[in-house]
């Protein structure tokens, strides 16, 4: 088989972004491989497409700033909608957290501001605000179409010379001493100078074949898709309870054809809502559990009778995998095996941070370091050196 400069394992939005940013630099000796028969059947296809800069840590804010700006200005239509993210608090402690983090966000260029309950009621009239003390709002937060982002990255990189192979599961990383020499696949060894593991929630097992303990753990996250009798409020933002993680927004069907997707948008009666279920145990399950409906609707009954009265659209309820790390931050960069790189562990933020991830990995591979965004804090060595990153609110 041909010897490649770089093999990217995983053809989802992250792997596609890395290929896109490499080819944008004129580097074309790239092969993307994926075990699936087609793109978008993994976490990218299950993602809800949120994009926000309201994070606690500097690194996540910087990754978001670059990525949201990319989505806003990309010549490819990725479906970016600046509907805003509204976080609300029900205790003074939660509100102080939002105020403290929003101050840092503003210092880093995020257009975020604190809001009172009167404005929350005005923006989201279907909410029960009686127990709220306030919140924060950023208009440039919103969502994008994960499948469109993936296709845009892929089409551009393939047109520039990158290759893409499906039905090619990676079995192990091939090494010579402490250096990568390729990937053993079900179809044989493919030689390469560099290998990037961007295979999401199943990356740990593959990394172990190179002798690397990659602390990435899969966790099922479920989403309820429901239909209301009346239209949702116009301009409804993503609404998040900072205390429980319960959140909801208008539904967008990224997998439907354009006519159906546009019809859902115009009618504006379909909604997605969820929360991080503390009873969920690590697994690779992607089935939707009907018991989750009861849990979510129990939370909706207090927060919004409008949501509580919606009817689940069972065939559109779904589950996908988060790829969690111990500190809920991504792992980006190389390791002690020369030529082996990681882009995984995004803990639910892979789609929204995919432009910044692709840029950073391209710079690390080609230049030896990421100069546009300093992602050194996301290196795998932080787990060995006890330099974990702290973020209180994980959603």
Derived structural class: alpha+beta
**Low-pLDDT runs:** none
Q: Span between N and C termini?
A: 43 Å
The CATH architecture of the largest domain? 3-Layer(bba) Sandwich
- Count up the domains: 2
The CATH homologous superfamily of the largest domain corresponds to: FAD/NAD(P)-binding domain
User: Oligomerization state of this entry?
Assistant: single chain
Averaged pLDDT, please? 95
Alpha plus pi helix count: 12
What characterizes the major β-sheet?
9 strands, mixed
Please name the CATH topology of the largest domain. Answer: FAD/NAD(P)-binding domain
Based on CA inertia axes, which overall geometry fits? globular
Number of strands: 19
β-strand amount: 15-25%
Measured on Cα atoms, how large is the radius of gyration? 21 Å
Helix content: 25-40%
Can you tell me the CATH class of the largest domain? Alpha Beta
Brief rundown of the structure:
By secondary structure, the protein is an alpha+beta fold. The protein has 12 helices and 19 strands. The chain folds into 2 domains: 4-45 and 147-216 and 326-384, FAD/NAD(P)-binding domain; 83-140 and 218-324, D-Amino Acid Oxidase, subunit A, domain 2 (D-Amino Acid Oxidase, Chain A, domain 2, 2-Layer Sandwich), CATH 3.30.9.
């Amino acid at each position: 088989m041909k010897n490649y400069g770089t093999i990217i394992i995983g053809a989802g939005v992250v792997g596609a972004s890395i290929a896109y940013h490499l080819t944008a630099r004129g580097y074309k000796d790239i092969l993307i491989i994926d075990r699936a028969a087609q793109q978008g059947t993994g976490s990218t296809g299950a993602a809800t497409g949120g994009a926000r800069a309201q994070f606690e840590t500097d690194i996540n804010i910087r990754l978001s700033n670059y990525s949201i700006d990319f989505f806003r200005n990309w010549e490819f239509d990725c479906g970016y909608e600046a509907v805003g993210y509204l976080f609300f608090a029900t205790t003074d402690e939660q509100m102080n957290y939002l105020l403290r983090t929003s101050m840092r966000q503003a210092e880093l260029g995020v257009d975020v501001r604190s809001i009172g309950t009167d404005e929350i009621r005005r923006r989201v009239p279907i909410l029960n605000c009686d127990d709220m003390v306030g919140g924060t709002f950023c208009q440039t937060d919103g969502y994008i179409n994960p499948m469109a982002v993936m296709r845009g990255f892929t089409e551009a990189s393939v047109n520039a010379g990158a290759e893409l192979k499906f039905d090619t599961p990676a079995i192990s990383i091939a090494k010579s001493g402490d250096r990568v020499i390729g990937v053993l696949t079900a179809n044989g060894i493919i030689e390469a100078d560099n290998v990037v593991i961007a295979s999401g929630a199943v990356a740990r097992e593959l990394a172990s074949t190179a002798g690397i303990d990659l602390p990435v753990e899969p966790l099922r996250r479920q989403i309820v898709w429901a239909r209301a009798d009346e239209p949702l409020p116009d301009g409804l933002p993503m609404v998040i309870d900072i205390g429980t993680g319960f959140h909801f927004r208008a539904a967008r069907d990224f997998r439907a054809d354009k006519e159906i997707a546009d019809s859902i948008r115009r009618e504006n009666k379909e909604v997605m809502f969820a929360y991080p279920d503390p009873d969920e145990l690590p697994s690779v399950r992607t089935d939707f559990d009907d018991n989750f409906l009861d849990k979510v609707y129990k939370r909706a009954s207090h927060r919004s009778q409008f949501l509580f009265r919606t009817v689940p659209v069972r065939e559109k309820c779904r589950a996908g995998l988060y790829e969690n790390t111990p500190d809920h931050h991504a792992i980006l960069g190389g390791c002690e095996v020369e030529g082996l790189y990681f882009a995984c562990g995004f803990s639910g933020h892979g789609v929204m941070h995919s432009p910044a991830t692709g840029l950073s990995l391209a710079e690390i591979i080609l230049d030896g370091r990421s100069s546009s965004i300093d992602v050194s804090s996301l290196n795998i060595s932080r787990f060995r050196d006890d330099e974990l990153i702290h973020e209180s609110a994980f959603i």
